Each structure stands twice: as structure tokens, then as C-alpha cells.
Amino acid sequence: MHKLLTQDQIDAYQRDGVVLIKGLWADHVDTLRAGVETNMKEPGTYAAENLKAGEGGRFFDDYCNWTRIPEFEQVIRESAVAEVAADLMQSNGVQVFHDHVLVKEPGTSKPTPWHQDGPYYFVEGQQTVSFWSPLDPVREASLRCVAGSHKWAKPVLPTRWLSEENFYPDEDAYMPVPDPDAEGMTVLEWQMEPGDAVAFNYGILHGARGNDSAQRRRAFSLRLVGDDARYVERPGRTSPPFPGHDMKAGQKLREDWFPTIFQR
User: Fold this and answer.
1) Which of 170, 8, 208 has its CA nearest to residue 88?
2) Half-sphere exposure of 193 (CA within 13 A, CB side)
3) DSSP helix/strand/coil, 11
4) Are 202 and 164 in contact (CB under 8 A)?
5) pLDDT tens digits for 204-232?
6) Is it the case that residue 193 has pLDDT exceeding 90?
7) Range 10-35 burial, b when 16+ CB lie within 10 A, else e
8) pTM, whole model, 2 decimals?
9) Taking a C-beta distance cutoff of 8 angstroms, is the pair 206, 146 a contact?
10) Residue 260: which of 142, 86, 39, 51 has the closest Cα?
11) What number of other Cβ atoms are within 10 A of residue 215's Cβ?
């Protein structure tokens, strides 16, 4: 296994679906900060502002920019993240799915809603991992994850963040969005330093507190998949949509769009 990991962490990831990796990108923080700055100055196709009228602060997010922002590609290809992902997923190969930038400016009290990433994606498989890494010290605005939620019998209904409306037609196939704090679920969260990363399965229910501090909370996320990941058709528009991909149900993700960055 990679030196950043222990067997206990790998076991915890397999059991709970989430684990903290200290210092994953500690040597790449400045590079990622530069990439986020470029991303905010030159937003991509999917950039969004996630506050309603009258809500204070700013909550910016954007994804699928790693092929046009050199700093992101450099970190993805040169850091240890792919090998760490292979160890956590217990996979021989690792493909890039997409990157994601999330910035909460000071005084942004709006939380990130509870959700699972999996139902938004057109990929299914047990070997999946997201890395969420703050580029600023995080005390209260950290990612919050419900341990074991990747093993629930039904996925959580995906909703649009601003309108809070669901956009998949068969609600019976999903469970309503729970309130983990009120329902006594095991919520894991950590105080984090820049370059630390929370690694979590696509099926993990997660959210984040608002940023009521006087400091920005910039975060870079990377979504990767392993050997068993396959394209799946969803009943609604996926996010990211990746229009024109031409994949069929049951196929591995196409290598020219989702390249393999590690192979044992």
C-alpha cells in the first residue's frame, strides 16, 4: 500500500465508505489554489452560484475543468492520489471521472445539502472514490459524511440544490433525503489542514456546514473510478451530463474522455 495509508484506513474505507487521508495534497496546495483562482476568473460550462436572492456570502462551484486548467491536471497526474485511490478501492486500475471546485466565501451561512453523488452520475460500481480537500484550514465548514450510507438498500433521491426539487420520476426507487443529525446517524467530520483529504465512496451521504468564519473555504474534489465501474442509464439528466459520450449501458467509461491514470 502507499505510504500515506495504513491497513486500518483501507479497512475503514471498505467498512464505512469514508476515511481521512492526512496530507494527500500537502505538497500541491499552492498549485491547486492557483488552479481554483483561474477557475473562478474563467468559469467553465457548468459553473454555478448556489445562493438564493437575499442569502449572504457566495457559494461557487464548477466541475469538469481539469483538461483546460493545467494546475489541476498536473496534480491529478503527478500526485499520489491515483495509487491511494487504487489501494482504498482495492482496484488494479484507476480512471478519472471528473474534478469539482467548491468555494464558500466568508459569511456564507448556507450549508451544502445532504446528498449522495452516485444517483447524479451515469456510473455504477463498488470501486469508486471521491477526494474532498480544503485549500484553507477548516474547523467548522468541513465535509460531513454518514458512515456506512453507501450500503443502504435504496439510494437517496437526487434534488436540485437551489429549487430543492427532485428530477427523477420514480420516487419509489429512492429514499427521501434524511436528516442525519435528527435521526441519530453516525456523522463523521474532521478539522482539516490544507491538503488533507476526505476520501469517500460515491454512495456516501454527505454535506457541509455553512462558512460563518472570516476565512474563505476553497475545496478541490476529484472523482475516480476503479475496475468494476460501468456506464449506467439514469431516468433523468445526469450531473455532469457529458453530452455526446455515445456509451452504452454496461460499458467501461471511454478511455479518451476518462483516462486511466494508474494501473498495477
Assistant:
1) 8
2) 8
3) helix
4) no
5) 999 998 898 889 999 999 999 999 999 99
6) yes
7) bebbeebbbbbbeebbeebbebbbeb
8) 0.95
9) yes
10) 86
11) 14
